[in-house]
Amino acid sequence: MGIFGQDPTLDFLRSWLEMAERETEAIQRDDWESLRFCQDRIRDLQAEWEGRDRMTRELRPGSSAREEIRSLVSALIERERYNQRLLAERLGKLRQEMEHWNGVAARVRRFSRGMSAPARSVWSRFS
Predict the structure, then answer these.
(1) Span 33-53, pLDDT tens digits
(2) How far is CA 32 from CA 45, 61, 88, 95, in A?
(3) Alpha-carbon distance 94 to 60, whole Å?
(4) What angle do CA 84, 90, 92 make, to 5 degrees?
(5) Distance CA 70, CA 113 (A)
(6) Could you tell me the pTM of the whole model?
């Protein structure tokens, strides 16, 4: 049992959900450093969860804890899916922006090549 007789799984899942919510905020702010921190921490939590799962398979939480665990896991899954959609949208926008700037760069290169081409005499066109 966790603090005050509470199931430690609940505290663990709440921490994970909180980190996923911080991840959402980082994505929305385009704060890639914070996003990386959150994703690293979530990866650590996932590894810890796998270890906990192996150690606690025989433990069965009480019915009220089971319901809260189910609720937290559902919320966590939805948050992770939401974050995945946000990142996919950001990636799509970045790809569009890259395509735009690649097109601009190509036009500038063509223009630059045209400007640096040796000037032909007007008389050479009539020969």
Answers:
(1) 999 999 999 999 989 888 876
(2) 20, 38, 14, 17
(3) 46
(4) 100
(5) 64
(6) 0.66
Q: Which residue has the tokens 């601009």?
A: 104
Element (H, E) at 66: helix 63-116
pLDDT of residue 3: 47
Compute the Cα dihedral for 58, 49, 90, 71 and give only its sign: positive
Asked if residue 28 has pLDDT above 90, the reply is yes
Q: Is residue 1 predicted with pLDDT exceeding 50?
A: no
What DSSP line would sit under 77-108, residue for residue?
A: HHHHHHHHHHHHHHHHHHHHHHHHHHHHHHHH
**Residue 9 neighbours by CB under 8 Å, 6+ apart:** 52, 56, 61, 65, 69
In 3D, which of 37, 51, 6 has the Cα closest to residue 14? 6
Q: How many CB atoms lie within 10 A of CB 50?
A: 10
CA distance 89 to 91: 5
CA dihedral of residues 120, 122, 126, 127 (deg, nearest 10): -50
